[in-house]
Amino acid sequence: LSARQPGSCIKPLIDYAPAFDTGAYWPGSVINDHKFEDGPDNAGSYYGNVTIREALNRSLNTVAWQVLQNIGVDTGLSYLDAMKFQKITYVDNDVPALSIGGFTDGLRVVDMAKGYQTLANNGVYDNKTCIIKIEDAGGNVVYEGENAGSKKVYEPETAYMITDILKGTFTATGGTGRGLGLSNMPAAGKTGTTNSNKDTWFCGFSKYYTMSVWVGYDTPKTLSDLYGS
Fold first, then answer.
1. For the chain, which terminus, N or C, has the lower number of CB atoms within 10 Å?
2. How would you write 7-52 as a 3-class SS string?
3. How many CA within 13 A on the CB side of residue 210?
């Protein structure tokens, strides 16, 4: 439940899915990937004009940055709020670095799993848990499970398009997890690595399960040669 910087795993949730919901962007939309002043660096090369599909598969920081700037940082944040993400502070409002995971306090691993679950569930957020209630020895209810039902966060078409793109993490040329998909069924996912390899992530889903994995030290320190893949 600790908060850690989510790196590129946040891109589908705060950048691209909200952008698709506006109707102004789709997987084939072309954006110029280049180094620009006061913007982020890519982990690798710059590719010029690329589609959003390729940009997400290659995890290009400059494209994610531009997309969130264009739709509005607060618009992207509103989606995380709708999925009850915790640990977000007022200091994060209107901060472009959120597009590549630069949160003040970070995000919880369980919230990242809920975000990807929403994509897997056709854009519908479900806050149910397996805990119904907890009673003390006297039979008094000390905790009531949050089973408030579900609500639509992303448009179904958006969830479908993002899922289709995220399959390319394992299959596309330049996919950050190329060759690491499941052998017996389709899967979709996203890798994430923060500055100095202090936090590394994988978030993804199959037809049956959604998962979020974080690797790092409790007290952050660099892990050499460790990446989200």
1. N
2. HHHHHHHHHHHHHHHHCCCCCCCEEEECCCCCCCCCCCCCCEEEEH
3. 17
pLDDT at 196: 84
Could you identify the residue written with the tokens 């479900």? Answer: 126
pLDDT of residue 120: 98
pLDDT of residue 147: 64
Distance CA 159, CA 183 (A): 23
- Tell me what pLDDT residue 229 has: 86
Distance CA 156, CA 158 (A): 5
Taking 70 as the pLDDT cut, the residues of the chain under it are 147-148
